[in-house]
Design brief:
The protein has eleven helices and two strands, in the order ββααααααααααα. The chain is mainly α.
Amino acid sequence: MRAPVTPTAAPSSPAVVIRPNGAIDVASNSDSPETELICGRLAFEQGMENLAQAALPSIILIRAGDDPSVARLSELLRTIRDELVQAAPGARAVGTNLASALMIMVLRIHFDRNEAKEGILGLLSQRHTAGAVLAMIQEPTKLWSLDDLARAANTSRATLVRSFKSLVKKAPLAFLADIRLELAKYRLVTSNQGLTEIALDVGYQSQSALTRAFRRRFDLTPSQFRKSRA
């Protein structure tokens, strides 16, 4: 006769404990954590309208052995941590500015490893196309002509058109239309502005002009789009 087997209780995982440590909350499941995480958030002005920011990847992974310049990131992270832990006067301001520098350095490494060859980042990486794109973004309501954009880019019309078609598969004025429509979509979702006001703010002369362009591009009217996102 076999004796009943008593099930062995599975070992319980150590609970995660969060302890305040100066200005940083430290989370660990042991007295001597092997990994330390420093988390933060950077806010972009008009983030939803920032086309360059929207083109960035959702995750950038940088390993310690990838590049000698990564060692500088570790030093900067330690400096940010020490500032926040010591909580000396002005520590948060110092940490904030160092975090901005850290973000720029991370993006620099990312772009060095993954050269932008197309899309808006590809346009911004080329001197002559960057001039045209920045002009569009800064003044989307201006009645831009191809000659105007070529002057802003300090290049010829033919070179500008050829470069845009190579990098984003469309002509400069078609790319400008995309910028205006994306701005209109953002305003439709995030504001209570009327359609006429939105149209004028993003570079269209009337509500009907915006509606025609919006329908051609998205196969629905601005009002239908706003209702679908309500």
